[in-house]
Amino acid sequence: MKNIFSNSLDADKSVLLLIDYQRGMFYGVESGDRTLLKNNVIALAKGAAIMEVPTVLTSIGESKNGPFFREITALHPGNPVIARKLPCFDAMEEPEVESAVKAANRRQLVISGLWTSMCFAHTALHGLRSGYEVFGVIDTAGSESKEAHDIAVQRMIQAGVVPLTWEQAVVEWMKTWSNPKAGQLSKEVYSVHNGYMGM
Questions:
Q1: What contacts 111, CB < 8 A, 6 or more positions away?
Q2: CATH no. of 11-111+131-193
Q3: The whole model's pTM is what?
Q4: Is the pLDDT of residue 198 over 70?
Q5: Chain-centroid distance, C-alpha 70
């Protein structure tokens, strides 16, 4: 039986789902360096914007948690943040979120969010049940403790989610330095968010 996850990401097959990147959710992250996490998710969102990967943004409880990171919404001005209303951890239980992901008509679901142990993991599992090839971007996510983050990652991998970093995702979308977007990615993503790649 062919492994459906053997192929790399393709920009024209991917949809990116970023869940609840808000101040209140962010401050609850204790699994790692929050400054690095924010750097990484902005880099991922920039890469998606440059490679024209459809991007879905969600928030939860904005009155308490604040708005979605403006650094990311500015990259996707045509994408309104979907304010989730249902009291559940699975963002795709929200009909508007599921519809937005389906509307992209892509089979590769690239996903990350806050927190890893809750909304990220639950939504990734939903994606698998719905038949998507699910790729979880791990270094753009965090949770309430390192153990919670690590166990959630293991849980997703065991279920079939393919783990990768933001840089792996963007590089796989780019494929080669001969890509016409390579110069823009180098200038606006790699040189800003990864010192080594930008040298």
A1: 16, 17, 18, 19, 120, 123, 124, 127, 134, 135, 136, 137
A2: 3.40.50.850
A3: 0.94
A4: no
A5: 16
